[in-house]
Design brief:
The complex is a heterodimer. Chain A is mainly α. Chain A contains 10 helices and no strands. Classes of the chains: A mainly alpha, B mainly alpha.
């Protein structure tokens, strides 16, 4: 086990780190944005939309992320090239990359898990506060923007850090669809040097460190939210 | 060819191999889950009443396993396990053997599950009111009898939700075993999809099968939950 050989691969490792962080940030951000309507319609209705949102959460949470990723990458990925206007559109360079499908799959996955959490959070905001907001003459959207969402978000905030770490731990799967994130980079180093442990243990340590950093970030954010 | 032909039981349909894949996935998940529970019980016991060194070691085990991605752990453990076992054999002057893929898969997933089980069971045991344990001791129960009569039934209501999640993680996590080449549901689906180029059909089929496993499991754990809570006052 010779860890010094890793030094020459520093640029590759940094690229891997960049893609891991990019995958994580994009999927958590867009997943959270999707989770808001998914959670909300399950509380407010209308019934068909609520049913659709609940089914979406159930399918995402009941199947392996690996299978979801393969459906998108191989399924959609084999469908797109057959459609000429997609092939010739300016989006094609993006739609050709594994990174696009990984980001899409991780975003939908995060939306599914977090949608179920947001449903609970929206439902547990005290009714009286929403009634008071309505009594002030706020429109439904203003109620959502000023009262309902901020209150619900504060309820989920303590769990959001854990969910983000969970999501970080899913990102190595992206390497299976050609994305060179941390684990993909480790695999490349392994295939070049034929030495298994140095790259693998190094990325394990990096994941460990990232987990620690995410915990600190969320602790900091939580402290910024005024408590009663 | 339509999807009914692709999923037909007999070749060239893939029905029968996919069915065997489902059975293998269930077997791996079940054995890994059981191994994880065993490790979890011992781990929880060690964390609650072990010596300082035991506690340190277990803390290290659960922290590391829970903060390193499962895929990475599976690959590292698989590689370490097979390499380590063969160098052990070499030390005794024996030639390398092919490690049974099933045993390796179960061992690797079980070690990962064990860390999560340890935390779930530790929390559940800690939630039992101290008085109940003290009363059992006062009756002069042996540790084993106390575990069977008091600790186990008293902790289950607290443990079932976590254990239910862990089982679902085990079934879904077993898909990652396909990466080290063992043929279970995901791997056979990959082979079917790659061979026929009907990617959507096969991956969606696999997704539906995993979903069915999850839904049936949830029903089962719901029944189990109601059973272990019998005699408790209804909440809400």
């Amino acid at each position: 086990m010779d860890f010094t050989i890793l030094i020459q691969f520093l640029p590759l490792i940094l690229i891997g780190l960049k893609y891991t962080i990019l995958l994580l940030v994009l999927s958590v951000f867009f997943g959270m944005i999707l989770a808001i309507p998914i959670g909300l319609v399950q509380v407010t209705g209308p019934k068909p939309l609520a049913w659709l949102a609940a089914s979406f959460c159930m399918v995402i949470r009941g199947t392996p992320l690996l299978i979801q990723l393969y459906i998108l990458y191989y399924g959609l990925g084999s469908l797109f090239p057959q459609i000429p206007w997609i092939r010739h559109s300016f989006m094609w360079p993006v739609l050709r990359e594994g990174f696009f499908y990984a980001t899409l799959a991780f975003t939908l996955s995060f939306a599914g898990y977090e949608g179920a959490v947001m449903k609970g959070a929206f439902a547990s905001v005290p009714k009286g506060e929403l009634e008071a907001a309505r009594a002030f003459g706020m429109s439904p959207f203003t109620v959502l923007r000023r009262i309902w969402f901020p209150r619900a978000f504060r309820i989920v905030l303590p769990t959001l850090g854990g969910e983000t770490i969970q999501q970080l731990k899913e990102t190595p799967i992206a390497a299976l669809v050609t994305v060179v994130e941390l684990y993909g980079a480790a695999g490349q180093i392994f295939r070049t040097t034929y030495d298994f442990f140095p790259p693998m243990i190094m990325v394990a340590v990096i994941y460990f460190a990232l987990t620690f950093i995410i915990t600190r970030i969320f602790n900091y954010v939580e402290r910024q939210v005024p408590q009663r | 060819m339509g999807w009914t032909d692709l999923l037909a039981w007999n070749p060239p349909g893939w029905g029968s191999p996919i069915f065997r894949g489902v059975i293998t996935t269930l077997q791996i998940s079940f054995c890994a889950y059981a191994l994880g529970l065993l490790i979890g019980l011992l781990g929880a016991r060690g964390k609650l009443s072990g010596g300082k060194l035991t506690k340190r070691l277990l803390e290290g085990y659960t922290t590391i396993v829970r903060s390193v991605p499962e895929l990475l752990l599976i690959v590292i453990l698989f590689y370490t396990g097979t390499q380590g076992f063969n160098s052990l054999l070499a030390a005794f002057g024996l030639g390398p053997v092919r490690i049974n893929g099933f045993v390796a898969a179960v061992a690797v997933l079980g070690v990962v599950q064990g860390a999560y089980s340890t935390e779930v069971l530790r929390g559940a045991i800690k939630a039992i009111p101290v008085g109940q344990i003290e009363a059992a001791r006062a009756y002069g129960m042996s540790p084993f009898l106390m575990f069977r009569r008091i600790t186990l039934p008293a902790m289950l209501p607290y443990a079932i939700p976590g254990l239910s999640n862990l089982w679902l993680t085990a079934t879904k996590g077993s898909a990652l075993i396909s990466v080290v080449g063992y043929v279970e549901l995901t791997k056979i689906t990959q082979q079917a999809a790659g061979g026929t180029k009907w990617y959507f059909t096969f991956y969606t089929t696999a997704a539906v099968l995993y979903l069915v496993i999850s839904l049936i499991s949830l029903q089962g754990f719901g029944m189990l939950d109601r059973y272990v809570r019998r005699g408790q006052p209804k909440v809400g």
